[in-house]
């Protein structure tokens, strides 16, 4: 609602004219009418400000959301003043939405030392990235709505928007294991499975629930049980953030494609119950070891949305340096930002991953087909040759793969069951 | 709230018409009743026309409202300038009749614009005519109009505020009326009283014009109530002013066109009201217990206060049982009161009236004993005091 009253200017002007007429004609009633209106204006202004300092407001919202989500933001209004509060407005700015402000009204009565939780719903309309929510302000009109007094509370909260993730069924069909094989369900290392491994001395930090009392009684010092560690599917995403792969602008850029595909791959792994991790090297190394859970997914997606294509190290080198994060049995996704890579090195890396019993697959962005941003355009023939050579090599290696160009829409391609089935292009 | 607002608007229009006609016309009660009915019918038509008006394109509707508003404004400016320049009874009677009639048209078109400023402006012009006469009627007109305008503005504001937040306004109508009345009515009353005191009598009517049948030269024109040249200049000035107002308004509207507006409608979900917990208050407050539990706790607190007055305060880290064993006497009522208090303060079970009686009697007995025979000094306090110099040494 507009904070400027539609009546204030009109009635003030009218009262002023009445006052002038009164002075001109000697009509006391008209002068008194104008004076009365001026008094009402003064009282209304005081009424709007009264008791505002005793009102507090807080916001509760999740720290992140996906594009297109509908969020409910709670606004907690507290009355610490000594009088009942009525018709209080709390206004907030949700940076990831399109509306410039959100307003909630507490019509009251809100008794002293009481709180009321209000909420507004906001649509995450902006693209993935970092945004802020706030500042929050609290305000009140006077009873006639002539004046609006507000108090601004600098409650700024960071808010992350993640790209909308799609479930990639093609990954599940390619050996990313959704269930555990019977013979290697556990490994002979200390962990949390139900299989008993042995007893050892108590060490600082051990859970007291794990104390083995018979052994403790026999040894005379605390002993704890040890169980074997569960094996679980692991998914590692190796992301190419080399500067050479920068191309395109806005929604049609290689970074946009990399982030969208990467988010969908990680989301799919999370939904399958895999432990998932992220390895990349942009302006700084990004290494998130494989783990599980919503919190871990948020941490990985956070790294993804703040990533910059400012690296100098090719992806194959990054994979070589961090191959430990793709343990035996893990699925390893190699996300290249360009076709302009050393194909022999790519073949060597894929071979090494296979040798360590990992399941590699490749997704490539055809950066040369995107509009260039920091270098002269590549001739179309050269770009096609590069792409064809990459496709040939991947087919030779018989590795699941996909190549995305500016004409492709990641959201549509990712959900197709044949997403990772590469084929030679006609005429290539 | 809309019905309440319409009622106040009707009262405002009726009050203005009645004031103006009573001040300058010779209106009978039957005539006033006729005006009341006519105004009610006009307002009814205006309310019914709201829906057909809503169908019209907003831009066209705004243009129509601005056009009609300019005509009305021109007419009011002309009328008021004429009235204040030459306030003869005949002219004022004529203006009161014309403006009252025009009030019917304005009421019928009240819903053409989002706010019925036309009705309010027309009413204020009629009231201004009434105020020119002075006396009790002017006092009533000024005070009552101020009150009714304030009430209407308050109701209109609350209706718009609640509608913009998609809240039902019916539960809040009376509260909005009350809040507006608290602000406006005292001022309106003060204005009415002040006018009544300052101008208790109406203005004397100008002497009746006696036709002069005496000798007059042929080139001398007879004197008229208002010179036609002055009337013409006033009309031209008024129209020029109206055109200027139109263009200034148009410029203001266009300059505001680029301002950002909310495109998402807020959807407040009304949550439950809850009390702020005592520990969250700025000053720490004791928890309150209702019913029997509260009576027992209050009785025990009285015991603690009595013991403190008698020089035996409870230590901050002392439990009720430790305090009872330290105070020791009178043992039986003290133990009973302590036991009941512990059950009331920390136990989950319901308490009976006999528990309350036991606690209160026990506390009364302890207090009586403390008054009769003050307790001995606390051993631990004495020991600490005695040990302190030894430790220092």
What is the overall pLDDT average of chain A?
Answer: 87
Q: What is the helix fraction of residues of chain B, given as a range?
A: 55-70%
Number of domains of chain B: 2
Report the span from N to C terminus of chain A.
Answer: 61 Å
| Main beta sheet strand tally, sense and closure of chain B | none
CA radius of gyration of chain A is 32 Å
CATH class categorisation of the largest domain in chain A: Alpha Beta
How do the SSEs of chain B run, as a string of H and E?
Answer: HHHHHHHHHEHHHHH
The CATH homology group name of the largest domain in chain A: von Willebrand factor, type A domain
Which strand-content bin applies to the residues of chain B?
A: under 5%
Please state the structural category of chain B.
mainly alpha
> Which chains make the largest contact?
A-B, 62 and 70 residues
- In CATH, the architecture of the largest domain in chain A is 3-Layer(aba) Sandwich
* Principal-axes shape call of chain B: elongated
Number of strands of chain A: 20
The stretches of 5 or more residues of chain B where confidence is low (pLDDT under 50) are 260-270, 381-393
Task: Walk me through what this model shows.
- The complex is a heterodimer of chains A (428) and B (393).
- With 428 residues, chain A is of the alpha/beta class.
- Chain A folds into four domains: 42 residues; 111 residues, Sandwich (Immunoglobulin-like); 40 residues, no CATH class; 182 residues, von Willebrand factor, type A domain (Rossmann fold), CATH 3.40.50.
- Helices cover 29% and strands 30% of the residues of chain A.
- Chain A has ten helices and 20 strands.
- In chain A, strand 16 and strand 17 form a beta hairpin.
- In chain A, helix 5 runs antiparallel to helix 6.
- Chain A starts with 7 loop residues before the first helix and ends in a 14-residue tail after the last helix.
- In chain B, helix 5 runs antiparallel to helix 6 and helix 10 runs parallel beside helix 13.
- Chain B is mainly alpha-helical.
- Chain B folds into two domains: 229 residues, no CATH class; 104 residues, no CATH class.
- Chain B has 14 helices and one strand, in the order αααααααααβααααα.
- The longest helix of chain B is centred in the middle third of the chain and has 30 residues.
- At the A-B interface, helix 1, helix 2, strand 3, strand 5 and strand 6 of A face helix 4, helix 6, helix 7, helix 8 and strand 1 of B.
- Strand 6 of chain A pairs antiparallel with strand 1 of chain B.
């Amino acid at each position: 609602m507009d904070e400027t009253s539609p009546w204030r200017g009109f009635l003030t002007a009218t009262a002023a004219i009445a006052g002038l007429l009164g002075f001109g004609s000697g009509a006391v009633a008209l002068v008194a009418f104008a004076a009365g209106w001026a008094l009402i204006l003064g009282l209304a202004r005081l009424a709007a400000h009264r008791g505002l300092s005793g009102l507090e407001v807080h916001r509760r919202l999740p720290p992140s959301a996906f594009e297109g989500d509908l969020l409910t933001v709670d606004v907690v209004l507290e009355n610490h003043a000594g009088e009942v509060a009525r018709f209080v407005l709390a206004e907030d700015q949700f940076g990831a939405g399109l509306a410039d402000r959100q307003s909630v009204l507490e019509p009251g009565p809100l008794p002293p030392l009481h709180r009321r939780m209000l909420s507004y719903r906001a649509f995450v309309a902006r693209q993935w990235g970092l945004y802020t929510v706030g500042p929050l302000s609290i305000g009140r009109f006077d009873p006639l709505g002539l004046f609006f007094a507000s108090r601004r509370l600098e409650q700024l909260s960071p808010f992350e928007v993640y790209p909308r993730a799609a479930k990639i069924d093609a990954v599940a069909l390619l050996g990313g294991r959704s269930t555990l094989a019977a013979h290697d369900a556990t490994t002979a290392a200390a962990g949390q499975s139900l299989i008993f491994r042995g007893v050892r001395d108590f060490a600082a930090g051990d859970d007291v629930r794990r104390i083995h009392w018979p052994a403790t009684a026999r040894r005379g010092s605390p002993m704890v049980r040890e169980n074997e560690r569960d094996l679980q599917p692991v998914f590692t995403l190796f992301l190419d953030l080399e500067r050479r792969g920068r191309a395109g602008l806005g929604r049609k850029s290689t970074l946009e494609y990399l982030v969208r595909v990467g988010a969908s791959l990680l989301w799919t792994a999370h939904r399958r119950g895999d432990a998932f991790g992220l390895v990349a090297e942009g302006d700084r190394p990004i290494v998130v070891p494989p783990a599980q859970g919503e919190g871990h997914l948020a941490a990985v997606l956070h790294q993804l949305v703040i990533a910059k294509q400012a690296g100098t190290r090719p992806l194959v080198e990054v994979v070589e340096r961090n191959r430990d994060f793709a343990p035996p049995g893990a699925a390893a996704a190699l996300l290249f930002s360009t076709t302009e890579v050393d194909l022999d090195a790519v073949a060597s890396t894929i071979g090494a991953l296979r040798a360590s019993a990992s399941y590699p697959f490749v997704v490539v962005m055809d950066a040369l087909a995107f509009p260039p941003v920091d270098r002269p355009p590549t001739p179309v023939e050269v770009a096609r040759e590069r792409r064809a050579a990459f496709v040939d090599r991947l087919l030779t290696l018989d590795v699941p793969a996909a190549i995305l160009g500016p004409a492709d829409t990641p959201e549509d391609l990712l959900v197709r069951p044949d997403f990772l089935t590469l084929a030679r292009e006609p005429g290539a | 709230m809309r019905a309440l607002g319409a009622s106040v608007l009707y009262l405002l229009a009726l009050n203005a018409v009645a004031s103006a006609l009573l001040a300058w016309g010779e209106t009978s009660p039957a005539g006033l009743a006729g005006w009341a009915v006519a105004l009610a019918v006009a307002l009814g038509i205006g309310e019914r026309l709201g829906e057909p008006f809503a169908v019209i394109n907003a831009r066209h509707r705004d243009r129509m409202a601005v056009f009609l508003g300019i005509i009305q404004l021109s007419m009011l400016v002309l009328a008021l300038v004429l009235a204040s320049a030459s306030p003869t009874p005949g002219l004022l009677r004529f203006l009161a009749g014309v403006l009252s009639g025009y009030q019917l048209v304005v009421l019928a078109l009240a819903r053409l614009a989002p706010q019925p400023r036309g009705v309010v402006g027309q009413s204020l012009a009629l009231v201004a005519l009434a105020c020119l006469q002075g006396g009790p009627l002017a006092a009533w007109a000024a005070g009552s109009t101020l009150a009714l305008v304030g009430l209407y503005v308050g109701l209109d504001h609350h209706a718009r505020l609640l509608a913009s937040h998609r809240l039902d306004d019916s539960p809040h109508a009376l509260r909005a009326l009350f809040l507006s009345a608290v602000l406006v009515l005292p001022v309106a009353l003060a204005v009415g009283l002040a006018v009544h005191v300052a101008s208790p009598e109406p203005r004397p009517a100008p002497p009746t014009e006696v036709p002069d049948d005496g000798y007059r030269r042929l080139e001398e024109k007879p004197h008229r109530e208002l010179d036609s040249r002055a009337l013409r200049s006033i009309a031209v000035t008024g129209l020029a002013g109206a055109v200027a107002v139109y263009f200034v308004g148009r410029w203001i509207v266009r300059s505001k066109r680029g301002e950002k507006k909310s495109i998402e409608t807020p959807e407040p979900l009304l949550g439950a009201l809850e009390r702020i917990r005592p520990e969250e208050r700025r000053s720490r407050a004791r928890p309150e217990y209702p019913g029997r539990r509260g009576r027992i706790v209050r009785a025990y607190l009285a015991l603690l206060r009595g013991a403190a007055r008698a020089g035996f305060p409870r230590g901050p880290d002392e439990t009720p049982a430790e305090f009872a064993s330290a105070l020791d006497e009178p043992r039986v009522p003290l133990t009973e009161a302590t036991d009941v208090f512990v059950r009331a303060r920390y136990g989950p079970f319901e308490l009976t009236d006999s528990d309350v009686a036991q606690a209160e009697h026990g506390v009364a007995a302890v207090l009586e004993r403390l008054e009769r025979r003050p307790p001995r000094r606390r051993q631990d306090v004495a020991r600490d005091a005695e040990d302190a110099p030894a430790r220092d040494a």
